[in-house]
Amino acid sequence: MMSTLWEIVGRMFKGRYDYTVDEKGRASLPSRFRDTILSSGNDRVVITMALDVRHPHLDVHPAAAWSEFEQRLSARSLFDDNVVRLKRLYVANAVECPLDAHGRILIPAGQRVHANIGSDITWVGMTRIVEIWNPEIWAAAQKEAMEAVDQVRSGLSGLEL
Questions:
Q1: Residue 129: inside a domain, yes or no?
Q2: Is residue 1 part of a domain?
Q3: Is residue 2 a part of any domain in this protein?
Q4: What is the pTM (predicted TM-score) of this model?
Q5: Domain containing 18 — which CATH number?
Q6: Which of 31, 53, 108, 157 gives 20 to 30 Å between its CA and that of 39?
Q7: SS3 content of the chain, % helix, strand, coil (to 5)
Q8: Which residues contact 32 (CB under 8 A, 6 or more apart)?
Q9: pLDDT 10s digits, 103-161
Q10: CA distance 100 to 105
Q11: 37 vs 113: CA distance, rounded Å
């Protein structure tokens, strides 16, 4: 069985960081995220539109982890409607982005528009992936999550975390 990136690196993404986007659409990866990606021997990420209609944002996958995801997805039936939808929504909108010598990535213009990203962004570590948010949309999503914290707590009881 193939080793996952997480077994190789032994670290996950966590934390929240506020950064800026330059006039060309480039943003620096927080150093902790960059170190995790580079320690896997990779210098690329894959950015795609998150599957969240209420809170548009972007998902960022290390390239090696994205390859594993694509392999698992390609093993699924071509005729499964949910697989087809996932490919159309998630895979078709994915763009591979190299890290430049300064640890920045170019966030594609169409993805910036989708996530309402201007000159400020919030990077959020979500264990296996990183998310890129418009700070105002992130704040709204956090507020909603806090309003439902009792539901979250009760839902977690059976997960043995």
A1: yes
A2: no
A3: no
A4: 0.89
A5: 3.40.1550.20
A6: 108
A7: 40, 25, 30
A8: 13, 15, 125
A9: 999 999 999 999 999 999 999 999 999 999 999 999 999 999 999 988 888 888 777 76
A10: 6
A11: 25
